[in-house]
Amino acid sequence: MKFKSLIAAFALVLGMSTAAYANGLVRTVDSFDYLVDYSGSMMMTEQETKMPKMEVAKAVLNKISDSLPDLGYKASMHTLAPAKELVPYGDFAAASMNSAVDSLKSDLTIFGRKSALGNGISAFAPQYEQMARPTAILLVSDGLNNSGIEPVKAIIDNNIGACFHIISFADSAEGQATLEEIAKINNCTVMANGVDLYKDDAALKDFVQKVFYAGLDNDALVLRGVNFAFDSAELTNDAKEILSDVAVILKDASNGVALQGWTDSVGADAYNKALSQRRAQSVKSYLVQEGLDAKMIEAKGMGKSFKYDNSNADGRYLNRRVEVIVK
User: Fold this and answer.
1) Which one of 18, 77, 91, 298 has the fewest CB atoms closer than 10 angstroms to its CB?
2) pLDDT digits (tens, 9 = 90+) for 31-63
3) What is the pTM of this model?
4) Which long-range contacts (CB under 8 A, 24 or more apart) does 277-280 make?
């Protein structure tokens, strides 16, 4: 079986649409949200482009939407200060998203429209809980927060199980500090300067790739549903059912496969390294039991994972996984 056909088979077994894999790419997030700061300070002129920050932000978001490969994403869009939903959660469509982005004004009143980033983030927390995992939240902001609760506190208190990525339009030390504090919450955060993304297509492409997708030829595929309880290497019944189907597919991987075991970030490095090895070995043992040649399977413990957010239970569960690389 050719490599791409094998990958398509994996998509079906792992309960994903084959749209998750296309043109040698695989999505690394299942859903995302554009979270746009719509306060007065975003109407101010950005000094390098001589345009309102909001106008530059709109152009960047439209470029991102237009550059996304068709991999079956779910998406939504919200504004902060004031907090409002512009695109309800559903199947991503670039045209609809661009229309919502284009509806944003860039000439609204600057003064008297205070930034309340934290209040807006708290308002949308229940919706974020319902989004398909892994989830990316693209925060577009200059970082100013001069009303209501602090945004870092809002994220932590609401235990938002998503990775925040930041498109920064900060032009003050205060705003930059706020965005950097948000970036520290997630080990997975990608932070970029909004003007750089506007001016440099290569920078924008790099940002999009880091947030949204990876190449199949160079990256491991997550065995979705093959996750482990805390401090355990025991396969669940659901995981065994998935692996039974995976075993059928892997019989066509003539050059063999590599299994990589991972843990969350809790505990000592040495202990987690050994635990991740046991997890990879558990998957290998089951695949051998299902008829695969043990010599064709390499099992390796990778230790702690920071691919997903370790600050919440959802992220830690996703990190306790095994990935497969088809050689």
Assistant:
1) 91
2) 999 999 999 999 999 999 999 999 999 999 999
3) 0.77
4) 277/301, 278/233, 279/228, 279/233, 279/320, 279/321, 279/322, 280/322
